Amino acid sequence: MQIENNKEQNVLVVDARKTDFFKKQVRIALRNCGKINPENIDEYIAEDGYEALGRVITTMTPEEVIDVMLKSGLRGRGGAGFPTGRKWDFARKSVSDKKYVCCNADEGDPGAFMDRSVLEGDPHVVLEAMAIAGYAIGSDQGYIYVRAEYPIAVKRLEIAIKQAKEYGLLGKNILGTNFSFDIELRLGAGAFVCGEETALMTSIEGHRGEPRPRPPFPAVKGLFKQPTILNNVETYANVPRIILNGAEWFANIGAERSKGTKVFAVGGKIKNTGLVEIPMGTTLREVIEEIGGGIPNGKKFKAAQTGGPSGGCIPASLIDTPIEYDTLIEIGSMMGSGGLIVMDEDTCMVDLAKFFLSFTVEESCGKCPPCRIGTKRMYDILEKITSGRGELSDIDDLYALASAIKNSALCGLGQTAPNPVLSTLRYFKDEYIAHVVDKKCPAGVCKNLLQYKIIADKCRGCSACARKCPVNCISGEIKKPFVIDQSKCIKCGTCMETCKFGAIVKE
Amino acid sequence: MGLDCGCFSDERGKKLLEVIEAEKNNPGSLIKILHEAQEIYGYLPIEVQKFVSDHTGIPLAEIYGVVTFYAQFSLKPKGQYKINVCLGTACFVKGAERVLDRLKKELNMDVGDCTEDGKFSLDACRCVGACGLAPVIMINDDCYGRLVPDQIPGILARY
Question: Using CA atoms, how far apart are residues A5 and A11, in angstroms rounded to an integer?
């Protein structure tokens, strides 16, 4: 981040909170990250840690806790945005001797890493919130399902659980009450589908992480066939603050139908990358231009991608859209877990759609045919289009497949898999047409659709490109314009990077 | 590439048995046991799966099903240095493909392979959660970010 010399105040370093990057941010979920030592429970306690749990189990009834959650308007931060209080209420009302509280820390959405930051920077907040949830629904056992790709998060959670047990904040008769609650860690093993709630529970049970049909919903029949709630890390990270500051405080932050803040992992073609926690309702423009500092290298903003493989693109024309669950759905994207990838004019939207489809094809668990076969067919069509063999009927086929998959896939992964294609078709159909009809890739990404050419007027005949070419397809006489043999060219772009005179262009 | 039949009587076998004994009555602990087994042996050949099956009572077919379902479990040995190229969205947008191509070229192998001397293995993975540093590769626990392909030879030379 840029720290500027602030002459007016005659100080060398400005307060970080007043920089463009921080001044519009409101940190609730990330409040302790980077501030406290995550391996020391005392530092968490010094920041009011476990006070909310203490207050809940000594002064509130489970119904009162759920009432606070309902009134706060907190919605699931994992992407779908289901009201957290309602989820807890369903599980509370399910009758069973054994209930479970699960935490989804299987942050599989490529491009999102806020959960990792919370787990690594403030692990106790998750434990505290899970215990509060346990008290609210009547459960004494929690599971955190964390991806094995996050070894530091796993280590810090282990330390945190151990310390909390030593302090009597987890385990039997917490703070001398009748409430007991324990938490166990379960490691994922690299399967994106396990972020889906029923698949996650199947995986905790030690099986292949395949989703199950719903209903029955987990609040009725979840982990080990018992009533279960599953919330995402960032959702939990909001809970203790809501208890301490009250539902009204939280409900006053954010927008009408989306309360509180959301953390975004801003990445891609943007100056300031990193985690950004903003009140709901902040516009995309504020995030990209003010907080993110805009697009580097003088390029133009083309689109932002939210929601990962389940989401869609927001084109430049909609940059003033406020970021809320419902507004994003209306424009064909979704909140998702909070990945926000910024793209400039050098990104080909057809190629991007193909990238996401290749992801879902690989990560489809294979249980239901619409997802297993349908996404593969969509991928094949995109491959055909990007390699220059596309026909106009392929675009119709994409629509037909997308609607069939959306309507018939078993779980969220399949039902949302066509979204990247549908949203790029909605806003960037001209790019698809250019690939299919003109056999051109406007962004210059799809290798089969572009040519490297030497502009004779600019070429000095230095032979630098010819010497670097890995397939020796550039030839010519010294001090005279060189030429590229298109039949041999592998379009690696080395010649263009080598040329000092800008004589090689890609078209 | 199989393991000797006698191999489970050594230190590694003893360690795995300890893990199994400690975990086998904990419901749903198979994945945890397999993680430990892979940590001990470096990969999960059929012999190790059979050993787990024999000592947990879980059918071998089910264990094989789990091993092949999850990307992190490997039926093939990995290199001493495991290279993981992140192909998450942020890395993709920032040119991870070109980094991967360069690695393939430098090591003269494809994704999923291991060099003949067992030094390096190359894999592509889904988002290591360091998107602010894109494009990123991991070599064992070392993370290299904001990469351009020309840095690859220098990085490999460190190992």
Answer: 7
- Please state, in angstroms and rounded to a whole number, the distance separating the CA atoms of residues A489 and A387: 15
Q: Is A150 on the interface with B (CB under 8 A)?
A: yes
CA-wise closest residue to A378 among A409, A350, A354: A354
d(Cα A503, Cα A56) in Å, to the nearest integer? 70
CB–CB of B35 and A365 under 8 A? no
Check CB contact under 8 Å for B69 and A208.
yes
- pTM to 2 decimals? 0.91
Scored b (16 or more CB within 10 A) or e, A348-364 reads bbbbbbbbbbbbbbebb
pLDDT given for residue A11 in this prediction: 64
Helix B46-56 × helix B11-23 angle, to 10°: 40
pLDDT, tens digit, for every residue of A260-292? Answer: 999 999 999 999 999 999 999 999 999 999 999
Positions of E strands within A248-311: 261-268, 274-279, 301-306
Whole-angstrom distance, CA of residue B149 vs CA of residue A191? 28
C-alpha separations of A461 from A91, A455, A475 in Å: 75, 11, 10
Q: Which two tokens stand for residue A485?
A: 């043999």
Record: contact B34-A189, CB cut-off 8 A: yes
Rounded Cα–Cα distance for residues A460 and A55 (Å): 78
- Determine the 3-state secondary structure of A456 from DSSP: coil
Residue A457 φ then ψ, to 5° = -65, -30
List strand residue ranges (DSSP E) for B36-154, in order: 81-86, 120-125, 137-139, 142-144
Among partner residues B31, B89, B132, which is closest to A189 by beta-carbon distance? B31
Structure tokens, B80: 């001493």
Nearest residue to B90 (alpha-carbon basis) of A343, A254, A488, A390: A343
Residue B125's closest chain A neighbor by CA? Answer: A190
Structure confidence by residue, pLDDT tens digits, A235-245? 999 999 999 99
Identify the three-state secondary structure at position B131.
helix
Query: In chain A, which among 31-90 make CB contacts under 8 A with chain B?
Result: none
**B81-157 adopts what CATH topology?**
Glutaredoxin (3.40.30)
Determine, for residues B134 and A267 on separate chains, whether the beta-carbon distance falls below 8 Å: yes
Q: What is the DSSP letter of A321?
A: -
Identify the burial level of A256 via C-beta atoms within 10 angstroms of its C-beta, where 0-12 means exposed, 13-18 middle and 19 or more buried.
Answer: exposed
Are B144 and B137 in contact by the 8 Å Cβ rule? The answer is yes
CB A49 within 8 A of CB A41: yes
Interatomic CA distance for residues A489 and A470, integer angstroms: 9
Kindly report the number of other CB atoms within 10 A of residue A162's CB atom. Answer: 12
Residue A315, strand partner residues: A303
Q: How far is A356 from chain B (nearest CA, A)?
A: 8
Cβ of B29 within 8 Å of Cβ of A347? The answer is: no
The interface pTM score, or ipTM, of the predicted complex is 0.87
Residue B101's contacts (CB-CB under 8 Å, 6 or more residues apart) are: B149
Distance (Å, whole) CA A355 – CA A373: 17
Q: Which range among A57-66, A278-287, B53-62, B86-95 shows the weakest confidence by mean pLDDT?
A: B86-95
**Mean pLDDT by groups of 10 residues along chain A of 507 residues:** 50 81 94 96 98 98 98 93 96 97 93 94 98 98 94 96 98 96 95 94 96 95 97 97 97 95 95 95 96 94 94 96 95 91 94 94 95 97 96 97 97 95 97 96 92 93 92 93 92 89 90
